[in-house]
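Holo prediction. Input below; ligand is magnesium ion.
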Amino acid sequence: MVVSMHEVNDGVTGEGVGAAATPGAVLGPSRSVFSLRDVAVSYGTAPAVEGVSLEIGAKEITAIIGPSGCGKSTLLRCLNRMNDLILGAKVTGSVEYHGIDLYGSAVDPVEVRRRIGMVFQKPNPFPKSIYDNVAFGPRILGRKQNLDDTVEQALRRAALWDEVKDKLRQSALALSGGQQQRLCIARSLAVEPDVLLMDEPCSALDPIATARIEDLMADLKGDVAIVIVTHNMQQAARVSDRTAFLTAEVDEEAGTRVGRLVEYDRTEVLFTRPSDERTEGYITGRFG
Ligand SMILES: Nc1ncnc2c1ncn2[C@@H]1O[C@H](COP(=O)(O)OP(=O)(O)OP(=O)(O)O)[C@@H](O)[C@H]1O
Ligand SMILES: [Mg+2]
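Structure of the complex:
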């Protein structure tokens, strides 16, 4: 039997799962959208990330920072089962979404990816019109009623409506990079996700477009949980409530390099009073 994620009981999560030892557990079970316990990911025989346990807040923006190759994107992809699509990728440990085992055999990965949207570093609009990009998800879900309204609302929430309302039938590929990124966010929002995962969404954008995306994230907060991977520490400090710092541990003898969670805390604390010297080294630019 396939359990639809519609049956997920929003806001109520499994209790008594050893949360005391988990960074961020102070959130309490009903306020977290994801609970990760000892999550590890490997590609073939090579481990990429190990031993990650943390709670991600339902009404928060969570930033993931760390040097290149430490496993930020890999970890992010665990949150909507995108690693399932990568040949050889193996995820172990437990990832709970509102208390449901995200990797349980009864969970439908397609429904997971509807509820948990993803925006990538490089905007990836489909080679279709602006309208058809945003209408794509609702159409697949058979939600053809009031499609014009759905498209307009999604574009408004993504702060793009005013710029595109007179050219909805034009190709999305003719938009600027920043507009394309907001279009991709609108496309995700059109299927009413509960979570938005963003992997370096601003790294190809100028400061003005970046500021617009950051404003947009602040507007979405409360409705949609956001997890953002960023190399921009000012951005993490500006937009997020909590920050996770990952780093790659290198074992020269074994020739392996494995990403680990070093510190996870309220953003303000992590950036002003980090408790681990590796975090301090990274945020002050001495390492990474
Ligand atoms: N599809 C893949 N197949 C094999 N190995 C992979 C794959 N994706 C990532 N890896 C490996 O997993 C490790 C972590 O990579 P990941 O892309 O998650 O890092 P990252 O922190 O997002 O880096 P960056 O900041 O450069 O984006 C790296 O050693 C990388 O080579
Ligand atoms: Mg990455």
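Residues 1-21 have pLDDT under 50 and may be disordered. That is the main takeaway for now.
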